[in-house]
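Ticket #4471: structure export looks truncated?
Reporter: QA, pipeline team
Priority: medium

Steps to reproduce: submit the single chain below to the structure queue and open the exported record.
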Amino acid sequence: MSPKVLARVLYNNFDFPTESPILLHPAVLENYVRSGLIDESYPALVPSSDSCSVTGIVVRNVSQKQVDRLDEFEGDEYERRTVVVNDLETGEALEAQCYIWVDDVKRLTGADWDFEEFMQNRFKNWIELEMKAIESCKP
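Actual output as written to the record:
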């Protein structure tokens, strides 16, 4: 998840507040791919047997309330699972929780998802729609 998406989900803002305890570290997850999805702007993280890897971030100091918000944001298409990632700053192997695609594999494009294209062309519209959907479901 990009830091801007994460900040939007956790704080309803595109940036982290200065007092936020959240720490972000670049990390890599081996034997997974970030696939595009048919007719969607967001990606799916799926296991791969092709020695592929996905670069992302490890997020530390997240409260349970924030984890619940992330679970709600990711929805039923993903399952939060424990994986081992490598922290790219320290080289340390860490257990982390990651949202893995569990919905229909027929929805995968089979092509790598383009993060830069998403951030430049689709991010603001997509995140606004996602957050409105989450807020409308709250009692």
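Status: closed, not a bug. The export was complete when the record was re-opened. Leaving a note from the reviewer for reference: The chain has a mean pLDDT of 89.
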